[in-house]
Amino acid sequence: MTQVCTTCGFIHNCYCEAIPTIASDLCFTLLTHPNEFQRETNTGKLVARVIKQVNIREWQRKQPDPYCVPENSVLTPVLVFPDQDSMPLTQWQTQHPMASNFIVLDGTWQEAKKMLNRSHWLQNLPKVHLEATQSSQYQLRRNQEAGNLCTFEVCAQMVRELESSDDANAMLTFFEQYLQKFQAERSGHALPSCSQ
Questions:
Q1: What tens-digit pLDDT sequence spans the chain (196 residues)?
Q2: How far is Cα 14 from Cα 16, in angstroms, rounded to an integer?
């Protein structure tokens, strides 16, 4: 009888052994929309399994999160969000060589925009944007705008721009495998195993 993996929760297509080892020194806070915790399609939880320094926090509209307030952290909090006053990620890193706490809004793009618009404390943070060169692999949600990356892909692109293309490629290879396993799991069948 097939059992549920106690780590990933999949029955037929456990992906735990496919998770790559990434030697990233980046620190992320995934500021997560409350709706996102109930969604099977959330990719933030995958980031936390691949990268060591990841804090998953629930977004509160009026209450600044302690992890995201400059006064409470040794790391400089910076919001990863394309905006009129955002600067390229690599430029930020050049001008601020000290370690940063990169805050990623974890939700749909529509939710992420609302999170930013409704929280003045987020608007006051410095912002950076990515120079993404790849289109998104993520097809698990409808009505997503072309060119937008999911949370996992955002973090992989940041690893690419600031640290290592090899690690970023390993993350995206894993993500492609995960998406296949997720679709098969949702359909209730196991993918055939590949013998090397």
A1: 568 999 999 999 999 999 999 999 999 999 999 999 998 889 999 999 999 999 999 999 888 988 888 876 789 999 999 989 999 999 999 999 888 999 999 998 889 999 999 999 999 999 999 986 666 666 554 555 555 788 999 999 999 999 999 999 999 999 999 999 999 998 888 887 654 3
A2: 6
Q: Are 137 and 152 in contact (CB under 8 A)?
A: no
Task: Tell me the HSE value of 76 on the side-chain side, using a 13 A CA sphere.
Answer: 15
Residue 148's Cα: distance from chain center in Å? 12
Q: Quickly list DSSP for 60-86.
A: -SSS--GGG-GGG-SSEEEEE---TT-
The predicted model scores a pTM of: 0.89
Q: What b/e readout covers 46-72, taking b as 16+ CB neighbours within 10 angstroms?
A: bbeebbeebbbeebeeeebbebbeeee
What span, in angstroms and rounded, lies between the C-alpha atoms of 94 and 189? 48
Distance, CA of 48 to CA of 55 (rounded, Å):
8
Cα 86 from Cα 38, distance rounded (Å): 30
Indicate the DSSP class of residue 37: G
